[in-house]
Amino acid sequence: MDELYAATGKPSYAKLVTHAELEEHSISKSTISDVFNRAGMPTWKTVETFVRACLRHARVQRPAKILSTPLDDLGWWESRWLDARASRSTAMENPGLKTSPTTRPIGAWDPFDLAIHRVMNVGAPEGDTSSALPGYLRRDHDAYVDQLLADPQRSVMIVLLGGSSTGKTRTLYEAISRHDLLRNWPLRYPRDAAQLLRTLQSGDVRLQRSVLWLNDLQGHLTGADGPAAAAELQRLLDGDVPGPVVIVGTLWRPQWDEFTSEPLRDLYSQARRLLLHQVKTVEVPEEFTEHQLAALRDDHDADRRLVSAAAAAGSKRLVIQTLTGGPLLVDRYERPHSQNGWYARAVLSAALDARRMGLHRPIPAAVLRAAAPAYLDGDARVDPPENWIAQGIQYLTHDPRHGVTALVGCRGEPGPGPADSYEPHDYLDQHSRVSRCEVAPPAALWQALVDDTHDLDDQQRLANNAESRLLYRYAMPLLRRVADTGDDTARMALAELLVQRGMIGELYERADAGDRWAAMRRAYALVEHGRVDELGVRADSGDQYATMQLADHMFRQDRSQMALDVHRGRADRQGMTAALHEVNELLQQQRAEDAVAILLRRAEQEEHWAAQRLTELCDAEGRYDDEAMQALRSVASTVPGSWAAQQLDRRLAERGDLDELIKRADDGDFIAAGYVPSLLRAADRIDELRRRADDGDTNAIGHLHEWLIEQGHIEEAVNRLRAYTAEAGHTHAEEQLVGVLVELGRLDELRQMADRGNDDAAWSLADLLIDRGDVDTVRCRAEEGDDQAMERLLDWLTHTDKANEALSIMRQQGSALNASLLADWLVEQGRPDEAVELLRHRTFRTQLDELDIIMLGVLLHNLGRSKEQFDVLLDHSRRPGSLACEPLARLLAARRDVDTLREIVVRTGSWAASRCLLDLARQNARPDAMNLLQYGLRPDGSVDGPTETA
């Protein structure tokens, strides 16, 4: 890094900070200083940002500095960093990180390395600790997985949903292993979002015709790199990246619901778009059916462990869970039979609560030692031995009889030695998220997590959970640590908390130290409080965010939509303020030509604010178009994708300047590329449009398809769309193909696409069949498990005179589809009580069902049954991640029921409830309202007070 710094001309730290921001990254002067002072191992984010800033500085020099390879290669830098990290693993870093995800066909993998659960020694002779996989019994969902994988001509993503230890990962292992093609494809297993992102962005052609194994998918969609990884997966599935790639993953159902809901505080928008629109899901049942158990009993060659587990499972039929020891572990946890069992329960409760609050890495032993005493209860609290925690850990990590333990020891410190952290069994983890969802972790656990959590993603999750519970005493130090690494999400949250808590001094300190979110929040606060003079002083001293707010204030009277570009860090701040004043005065004096000259001169110096102001002037005056274009060209090249680049592309498109747009598109301007196909079509340059479509341009595919239809070339349009769908896996081409097949009435091809798992084809097929009066075929497909056909059938029945039949189907099959539609129909028929019962007695499992809970609350409110409404919402708010928390919070806020709101905040961490509670505090709804706003709550629900650390 010293060599790179010297080769780029040793720019000042301030310049590197500015270059990093223009590269849409963030680094502070202190972090740069730490890099050169060798203050510990820098994170990859720090290294990447530093390298990008140096490379940008080299590019903008006059003349530009040409760096020798490999100094200009980010991939080389990442490889060097990985090598350094592997040789210097510390407890603050992930000791298991590999230089790249291992790649080999599935047959060359140890199945347990792919996260398949080890099994108990049920049915095995004494002393047999065989680690081989037990025999496999195919179930109904296996056939559906085979169907989705049948013809991997395009990239596809399949996620298996179900509880812990239901056989999700084993199902995928068996499906890939028995597939004629996929079993020979290389399988990549990135362990987290960071590794997944590097894999997807590597440009490695070997990613084509490979299997991407994303077991426990939540780890790949969360954390600092989660949104970017989700976006890259979307690009892959859209066909923007060459494939095919088969992506398989697993999720618990509550995790799916959390990712796909739209809460007040939306943390997973990228993941939601991916999961809802581009992923095929398969439900893995919790229980075996009676038919499957009978087949197992009749199979004399069946694995004895599987047969024994089926017998031990009894009437609950939780065979896989029993095989992996889940129910046994729960029983030992909830009903201790010895003193050591009580000690173990306290330790395990601390571990499970730590995991539930967001600690995804192995639980440090230090956390367990510090927190476990707060969980010890009953007689076990009386004179326990000094080593009772060690005894509890020993009890949880050893089971010579069954071979499955509640905790698995890990080691993070380099070199051999005893375990220093522990992973809880995920069946216990899942169980605790339900059984302990209303338990507020004690203060001892929160303090231990603050003291001994070092992973940044874990710190961010813990901070989010603490903040949503208004536990500012613990949220603040966690947020400070993450914010100090340059994380924008943490910086934004911290800045808001500092303002809310009146900690303006710290806000100013962070802003002056280079925290742009703190600087933005400070500038906004100055405007809120009418302190325009101070805003001007800060703008003149070089504060770009104060300059933005000041400019907004200056133009607000006659240009309310004015918004200065974020990249104005290039301008001379003191000169900018003066120039803005001068331009305004010239315009007031009707000297527009002089004002334009000033703005054009500043734009030629690559100052974005001048180009934007000149463009606005052009739009307002209806002239100076050539000058505005000249200004936009001057600054657009400096920051691709900036406001200036977008404006330039838009104006070129309006002018029809196709050649310049094509050049910009070919140089990598994706906005220009979006305009090109429509202009090619309008100019009748169809050969070029075909070429772009054949190169995979999604917009070009759409415009070429429309042109072919207009010209009557139907078969060519269909054949091209088939080819784009089969060869490149373009989602948009597939959607257009479905539309054409519907227009042509080609039922057989629609049916084939629907049977391959295409939801759009299934919807369209059902619609077309109903339009043709062939309801019997729709009914047959619904009975065979086609959800789209079932929903269309219920919709048709409800809107005819056969709504009672739809009601009967729902009651018989427990269908989750169209409950709200039928409830509305029952209300219209004067049968509101039946509507209430329909919604009340359903099996509430999926996100759709959660919405039905909300509808039930609205229905009860409309019927004047407010107590029932409250009871329903309160009952369902106790379920992890329930959407009922938000309407319940609004109801309690309307009642000004501060105590119940506070209970829900502490118990569930509902963001909606915490916002409602803070709103009531701002209205002085309680005597302690100001303390609540400033200090938040304690873990026991009482209002906190001043602390030295918060």
Distance between the termini: 37 Å
Profile the largest sheet.
6 strands, mixed
The proportion of residues forming helix, as a percent range, comes to: 55-70%
User: pLDDT under 50 segments (min length 5)?
Assistant: 89-101, 123-130, 557-574, 843-848
**Spatial order of the strands forming the largest sheet:** 1-3-4-5-2-6
Strand tally, please?
9
Backbone CA Rg: 31 Å
* Structure classification: mainly alpha
Individual helix count: 52
Strand content: under 5%
Identify the overall geometry.
globular
Mean pLDDT over the full residue set:
79
Structure description:
The strands form 2 sheets. The protein has a 6-stranded mixed beta sheet with strand order 1-3-4-5-2-6. Strands 7-9-8 form a 3-stranded antiparallel beta sheet. The radius of gyration is 31 Å and the shape is globular. The two termini are about 35 Å apart. The protein contains 52 helices and 9 strands. The chain is about 60% helix and about 5% strand. With about 950 residues, the chain is mainly alpha-helical. Residues about 90-100, about 125-130, about 555-575 and about 845-850 have low confidence and may be disordered. Helix 24 (about 490-500) runs parallel beside helix 26 (about 515-530) and helix 32 (about 625-635) crosses helix 33 (about 645-655).
